[in-house]
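Consider this one:
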Amino acid sequence: TDAPANGEAAAVEPMDIVELEKRMATVLPDGWKLGQIKAEQPGTTYGEFKREILAEAFAAIVMPYNVGAHDSSEFNYASGKLDRLTYSRAIRIEQSDWEIDCLQRVFWAWYDEAALIPGYLPEGLPPAAEWIVTWYWDGLEDIDPEKAAKSAQVRLRSGQTSYPALYAPAGLDHETEMSKQAAALGMSLEEYRRRLADSLLGPTGSTESRSQSDAVTETA
């Protein structure tokens, strides 16, 4: 209140209502002024509220907030990449479930129909019971392609992965892509593969050369 000089304000009932009329001057009781409730502590803003609601919705489908909201402004590189790890695992599990529950059934239903058409399937195929049906899904692009390429090279050299495993996330068949690259470089597929092996493991004759060199040294 704005207390008058004598310190006595007009008596007003608590939570009393004062009618305000448009375009009219309003006089309050002596010693009182107009005001409204004011939160002294930091209150939740609309942006914070919306973020929490969206984060809860995205969590139900194991999707990071920055992916679902298309907003990485509050993420650094490490935290953004860490959140995508669980997301990519969830996607792989979902894809595996689709293969088992749906795609395999569709494929074998197609095969039953295709087998009835004379000459439709290539000759010389092994029995269908021996087939291994593989599905190629588009993978998630790495946010740092250079580091991903170096990591792939290290894993190839150490035998922790293979070319089929590297091509599969891109939805590509490694044999088809290697044939294209060999043709583009003007060499046979066998020569291209040999050079790839040499670049990963070293020339095939290097081990024999070292063995012969060691034998000569021991003899001397």
Observations:
- The radius of gyration is 36 Å.
- The chain has eight helices and no strands.
